[in-house]
Structure formats: C-alpha cells, structure tokens
Design a protein that fits this description.
This protein is mostly helical. It is about 70% helix and about 0% strand. It has one domain: Rhopdopsin 7-helix transmembrane proteins (Up-down Bundle), CATH 1.20.1070. The chain has eight helices and no strands.
C-alpha cells in the first residue's frame, strides 16, 4: 500500500495543496479546546486520559485535512478508535461495576460488534463512509438503557451523547450530497459537534464518578 497516496474525500478539497481544506483543518481546534477544558474540569485519571486522547484526535484530524494522504487518514481514525475503546472500558468498570478483566473483555467484544454492524449500516447506501461510525450511537444507547435502572443521570447523559453524535454524523454524511449547493461542505460541523459530544461524554463520566464519591463520603 502506498501510504503517501492522496485522499480526496471531502467537498471542500479541490486540489492536493496543504491548505485546500482550510475550514475542515481549522475547525479541529474545537477538539483541542474541548480537550483542554475537560482536562481542567475533570481531575480524575480516566477523565484526563480521555481528554488527552481527545486532543490527539484533533491533531490527527488536522493532519488528515492538510496532508490528505493515507498515512494521515490512519492518524485520523486511530485516536478515535482509542477514545471509543477507552470509554467502553471506563463505562464497563465504572458505570456497570464490572471487574477490570470483564471490562477489558467488553472492550474486545466491540470488534465483532463493529464487524457485524458496519456492513448492515453500509447496506443503507446513503450513509457512505459514515457507516463506519453508525454503530457507535447505537452502542451508547444500549449502555444508556442498561444504566437507566441504576444510574439515571449517567443514562440521561449517555443518551444525550448519542443524540449529539447522530446530529454530528448527519452533517458528516451530507458533506458530499450537498457539495454542489454548499461549496465548503458540511464536514466541519462534524468536527465542531463531535468535539462537543466527546467533551460531553467525558463530563458525563466525571459527574457520575464525583457523585459516587459524594455519596460514599
């Protein structure tokens, strides 16, 4: 595979130049701002780990929307995957009360889940490359359903996160179809809303953990 091969996947890009996607590139600052905010707001080890990964997501996405090469595409998606897996572990351990071993096995279960779910969403056709992300809000809603009897606030927060992600994915999906009428595309809204959504997920985790500490004090 040629890792230096160019990738032209977004409406805003009309040339292979470094700054061919200025809006898509600059809006990655939303991830960095969200990461700094949540790092300061959440002095919990897991919350800070998630905040650090959130910052790396911004860097990876910036690289992809500037260099626009296959290696940069990998730098874009791997931090997102890392955030998902880390949050699943945190949700299993700290929301559901599973042991670390069972929490890790739950992380591993994400891979067969995604392998089954992504092709199903891809059959819908209109999702395009967003089909790869579509199983995530479904998974968040499943966690929200399990949490509702035992941690209603956390369940509410997870459901809100899923809704934010669905709206965010809508803008990502519309980038190509609306290209003729919106020349700069709509992908930049995926960045902004996704930054808000990921920060909210960290906030939901932090609130749950801090509330637990207050109740046990």
């Amino acid at each position: 595979m040629d890792w230096r091969a160019g990738v032209d996947a977004y409406c805003e890009r009309t040339s292979p130049e470094f700054w061919a996607e200025p809006v898509n590139a600059v809006t990655n600052a939303a991830f960095l701002a969200a990461a700094i905010l949540m790092w300061r707001r959440a002095p919990l080890p897991m919350a800070r780990a998630l905040s650090a990964v959130l910052g790396v997501i911004g860097v990876g996405s910036f690289l992809f929307h500037t260099f626009a090469e296959r290696w940069a595409g990998l730098a874009d998606v791997l931090p997102i995957l890392a955030f998902i897996l880390l949050y699943i572990f945190a949700a299993n351990r700290d929301f559901l009360g599973l042991s670390p071993v069972r929490s890790f096995l739950g992380v591993l279960a994400f891979f067969p889940y995604a392998a089954l779910a992504v092709p199903l969403f891809a059959r819908l056709g209109f999702l395009g490359s967003s089909a790869g992300y579509a199983p995530i809000p479904v998974l968040i809603l499943v966690y929200a359903a399990f949490l509702r009897p035992r941690a209603r606030e956390a369940a509410r927060g997870m459901a809100m996160g899923a809704l934010l992600l669905i709206v965010s994915l809508t803008f990502r999906t519309l980038d190509g179809p609306l290209c003729a009428t919106v020349p700069m595309g709509t992908h930049f809204m995926w960045h902004i809303l996704n930054a808000v959504m990921l920060a909210w997920m960290i906030e939901t985790y932090s609130r749950h953990m801090l509330a637990g500490r207050r109740h046990s004090a």
